[in-house]
Amino acid sequence: MSNSHVRPPVTVLLGLVRREDQSIFKAATRLPNLERQLRIVGLATTATALLDLASIKAPDIIVIDADVPELNAIAIARELIDRHSDAAIIFVSDEESPDKVDEAMRAGVEEYFVRPLDAELVAKHLIEIAEVVERRRAKKEHVTVQPIEEEGYPQKYRVIALTAAKGGVGKSTIAVNLSIALAQETKVKVALLDLHIGDCAVLLNVNPRLSLQRLPEQLSEIDTTFLRPYAATHESGVSVFASATNVSDGLPEPLSFEKIQKLVEVLKEEYDYIVLDAPAVTYSTDLSLFALADIIVVITVPWDVLSLRVTAALIEALRKIYNVNEKVRIVVNRAQQKVTTEVPDSKIEERLGMPIWEKIPNATSIIINSINSGIPFVISHPNSEVSIAVKNLARRLAGLPIQVQKQKRFLFF
């Protein structure tokens, strides 16, 4: 039998790691039934030795004890990343304060283990991180990340799902403004399905008479005529369907996949585009919905490393089911120019293993006024940078040329 399919072991270099932690990592390499073999290729007891061993061994993963008093772990991590950008850096620490995790992630650290360590979890995470490292190396060797052509794709995506790995990233706000932008830019019919708690209807200041919670169990009853009382038509022409219209009684029950599937099937008969505002994904069981979408737009933000961390987990979960290069697009919301506290684009792309497809600039006052007034900013501030960015996103999804943002001109006297 050929062994050509056997993958090489994951190589791990330990740097100034406590003796008890060394034992855990060694135990992880000896666990039975591992998906891949793990191999410790060295143990460094000084910072200089760690840098030298990293050059000699070229490991997949470098583990650093972040609590060693005489070691500046952040500086060492940055130095290692500069020298060996393909390797993944892991910190081990007694403390998981948000500030420490944030500082580590901004330095380029990919994982943060908190003691006490568990051999099985360590093995699982090492193998997962090694997969990311291999994809990163493959891209550099064979397929460098290419930006999407400015004129967008020639095809149009009829069913567009917006999602995120956590709440608070502006997903519903983008969904609402994107739906209107699609209607404005293409002059065709657009349906917006709010599959969470009805925020989209609130943002549009409309009130559907019936919520999708009242759809019948007998799916054969659902057709375009049956669905009309469930739609609220916004002045832009966008039809809004809401999973909930009144949350005073608590959170609504999630709609079944079968009902959403039937909804999409029927709405395709009447609408050219269907935008799905999907709930934030917290479990892998939440991914079935995306089988209905032609494209999945994942929203994240650049200044929240925890958001990037869970977004990376979401991308990896999607990668196991779909061809993410074809079906998934990354949109960075609330991006600001010349803000040093933001994670750089290159680090975001490296962390997520995908290129950024579009960036939506931060416009706090415009967006807050839009939310509070119930007037989407693509209507209230159509020429603002944030509106033009959303319109360009809509045009790319529709396969239309994007607009070139005019640069501000400054006169100096």
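Above is the first protein from milestone M3; the second protein from the same milestone is given next.
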Amino acid sequence: MPDFSTQTEEFTPFSVISLDGTSHVAMSGKAAATVIRIKISYSSQTGKPLRNMRLCLRGRLLDDDETLGFFGY
């Protein structure tokens, strides 16, 4: 698992980072929705908590363990 305390990621309105460190992007123009489940609480291998990870979708702070739906436009 990547060290999220030092990792940075630039988010687009249709991009979100998952627990395994990969970016999932719902492409615009697609009719189907891609649902991504996120849990925003991590612990490092040493057991110490990492810095809080705050994800925003179009300016709205995501809640812990929130399920997101992405729809293409």
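Note on the second protein: Residues 1-73 form one domain.
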